[in-house]
TrEMBL record:
Induction: By heat shock. This is Lon protease. It catalyses: Hydrolysis of proteins in presence of ATP. It comes from Campylobacter majalis. It is found in: Cytoplasm.
Amino acid sequence: MQINDTRLFPAEIPVIVEDELFLYPFMITPLFLSDDENIRALDLALQNETPVLVVTTKPQNDGNRDFDSVYDAGVVGNIMRKIPLPDGRVKILFQGTQKAKIIKKIDTSPLLALVDTLHIKRPSPVKTDALLTVLREKARELSTSSHYFTPDLLRTIEESVEAVRVCDLISSALRLKKQIAYSFFIEEDLEQRLLKLIDYIIEEIEANKLQKEIKNKVHSKIDKHNKEYFLKEQLKQIQAELGTDTSRDEEIQEYRKKLENKKKFMGEDAQKEIKKQIDKLGRMHPDSADANTIQSYLDWVLEVPFENIAKKKSSIAEVSKHLNTDHHGLEKPKERIEEYFALRELLELRGISEKVNNGAILCFAGPPGVGKTSLANSIAKALKRELVRIALGGLEDVNELRGHRRTYIGAMPGRIVQGLIEAKQMNPVVVLDEIDKVGRSYRGDPTAVLLEILDPEQNNKFRDYYLNFNIDLSKVVFIATANDVSMIPAPLRDRMEFIQLSSYTPQEKFEIAKKYLIPQELKKHGLKPSDVSISKDAINLIIAEYTRESGVRNLRRRIADILRKVAKNILLENKGKINVNTKNLKEFLEKKVFEIEQADKKDMVGQVNGLAWTSVGGDVLRIEAIRIQGKGSMQITGQLGDVMKESAQIAFSVAKVLIDNKKIKVPMTIVPKFNDDKRKLEPSDVYRRFDLHLHVPEGATPKDGPSAGITMVTAIASILTDIKVRHDVAMTGEITLSGRVLPIGGLKEKLIAAHKAEIKTALIPRKNYDRDLKDIPDDVKNDMKIIAVDTIEDVLKHALIK
């Protein structure tokens, strides 16, 4: 069959399937056939002396050789030579002549199809020449940036005048993907084929330019890294020869590594600042002063535990358990703490996490040794968080909290940031101890910084001057402690909720010593309960006569004193169990300290038991008055403050009014009568002809406060009327000029002090009786008669002996 004669088509010819190559007309190509179907198609073509159609398999072909898995167009050609190979394959030399497509499928074993040639639609010669010129130009341009075209192939493309052949030559050289090659191959409109091929070559040119640019950049970067590497290696060798330290680069790399590990946990401003300082250090000479400063900064800042946050959620059950385990009594403080953490737990359970720390800051207020810091420690254990204690007593420098600027010698982060580093957590329990003793000076006012630290609206962006970026303190549990709330500035008080811890009664101290202090101290001293026993009476005696405090700190010290001597006796004298009782207690403790002087055993004129509150608890304050012949003036001693001095003046005036109104009876026998005075004596002569001296003992101790008014009136009334005051009565309350008794504070501490002094009757203002009596311990109320008074007449009725 003459296959160049298109008039013989369509014709039935065998089909050979090729996997890899996409053939074009006028190509002489060796083909290796191993598939049985292909070999049978070859044999059929040779037997019938017919041409064959070579088609290509479609992409993602699974190995099938049927019509559905091959393209329906290919190259018709003849077999120039057939060579059987030893491995069973057949090598043929195939010469393509023209393009053809399958019109009809006839047989599948081998593939046999009705084939017809493609009919090319040609544009005008002028348009064809113009498109060919552009195609050749783009092919030349592509050849400069790629290896697709050999010089011989370019020459053939330039010399050929047949547009179809030029397209086939270029398509074969471009190594197109099967699907793209087929789309060009099957295109019967020559103009469209030329345009598509031009567009494809233009895309290839742009892609090659981009690849070349990327390669240049990559090579440049690689060259730069290689250059840096070789320079660094040379520098190391030079430093090794000079004997200098080469660990600096390793340190900088370590800083970068630490920053990378913490990067996702810190804010963007922190990342920028730390990275800037690391880069700055890398450019500096290691012996410069600034290098040491920056290195110290990086050592500090990369220790801040941005990545460590305690995950345990608030649990009211855990908090309650630890509070009850670690503390005896303190029911009200425990209840308020439980309420505080119940709120946090509820907010966490309901997913309102941003509100968790927006409550008030707790401040435990009370005398020393009553368990303020211990309560905070129990909270930290319940939350499974670290406890950080920051002592604020005497703090004057604002930079101690805020951090020093790095320009100063010896600069370091503030105590808050240092506390986070110490705790290795970003949300520990921080105890701000003795917040009432913060001072202020020319170095600033630390309370202003505390306002920001404790304000939930501000502390999520607390700025430490040393770090120079913001730190989030909103997850920290802040707990403050104070002895005297009145010493805390008002704006700072406004951010805190105060939980009052009062003085312990002797019975509470006994229970604490028995359940907590003695077992803890035995463990600290390496002793067992079988080595020593302290009797109940001995513990009570220690509490009554060997300690002077509201809390139990000194009680713990006295127990430790006893156990040290017990340990010594066990080692030196090999004694068995040692029993400590009231008889041998003086062998273990040196001297007694009478906490509160006991009430006098007899009634006296001008001497009254007053009740006072101090920063270490309550106290019984005896106020004394004497009369001296004079002109009605009054002298006040005892180092009293302005408030108590004013109370004394008011008390003197109230006493005068009582005498004038004959509310109290004045015996005229005590009033001196002058020889030239012929008139009858009047009650008012008693305060006109006597000078009074009012004294509050322990003159070395400063005293002040608005609660001694009724005590002073009673003392003045007693000395002016010569009526004795009951020795077993104590009182507290402020007085007005009209004689009304005003309420006071610190009632619990005052009544506990009265109880310790064996006072039998206490006179207190009516409002305190109605409002505060429920807070008084039962053993105090059971052993003492507490009477509410409204006016000074009520006070004198119970205090003066009729």
